[in-house]
Design brief:
single chain; about 325 residues; alpha/beta; 8-stranded parallel beta sheet; globular
Amino acid sequence: MSFHDLLRSPLGFGTAPMGNMFRAIPDEEARATLDSAWDQGVRYYDTAPFYGAGLAEIRLGEMLSQHDRDDYVLSTKVGRVILDDVEDTSARDLGEKGGLFEHGLPNRMVDDYSADATKRSIEDSLTRMGVDRIDTVWVHDIAQDFHGDDWLHHFEIARTGAFRVLQDLREQGVITTWGLGVNKVEPIELTLALDEPRPDAFLLAGRYTLLDHRAALSRLLPLAEEQGVSMVVGGPYSSGVLAGGTTFEYQQAPDHVLERVTRLRALTDRHGIPIKAAALQFSLAHPVSAAVIPGASRPSRIAEDVAALATTVPDAFWADLRASGLVDAAAPLPGGH
């Protein structure tokens, strides 16, 4: 089964905020947000051990325990093992993303893409979430932003470890699909160039948005389309700057990004549509795109995402967007513009 075939809807929920990303979210607010996602019809949930050192998986599992396992699609990630002993959350080395989960659980996280660690990580995720199976498993953050110049060393461990384990699990029917979950295009390009193992899909965060899509369009997406590999778009609001926030790439947005957002917002205002609608529908317009998974830390945000996807965006907007030069000439747009 392809990743496209797994999904009932292209709108999923990314649970990184449920791991107390950036702020300590009260349990009741997290529960209300997850319940709101379900009540609004969201049936695809993506999580990871990394999100708050297991906190997001625990919170997600509590919500999913109220529902039949056949009624939703679930993905999580491998590459980090969560240990019982604790560490100083403010002292974690997260590469370019330092401080991301300072408010998460204090359990020590260890980077490990080996075969044994992959098997342990999946078992631990099943236990934390209280589920009997995971549909899709992503190899997490095997890229420059977390591992710097050592990323190729970690990639090689994953190629002979995690990749092969996940391919075996897929062939055994334990999982349905697997791939990479990263913030950079290079590891996915490298994986698609391998003769084997062969992924079914990939989760690309922040690299196929209205603000940042040129690198993905140049090589990655043509390769994926040729091989029939699906894309899940994470971070469609570019860390929040496309949804009214001021952060881009998990940091304060630079002036040139804010200037582009101002131009985009002027265009959406002129056509009377929410910028969120333009962002989500742009990310889904590429034929490789199977789903988009914005995160949320408040219940009200879910309704905004559902409404944004359902908004009828006039063809004139996409034509004006193309004419403005704010999107790459090669980017597919809704309506064939």
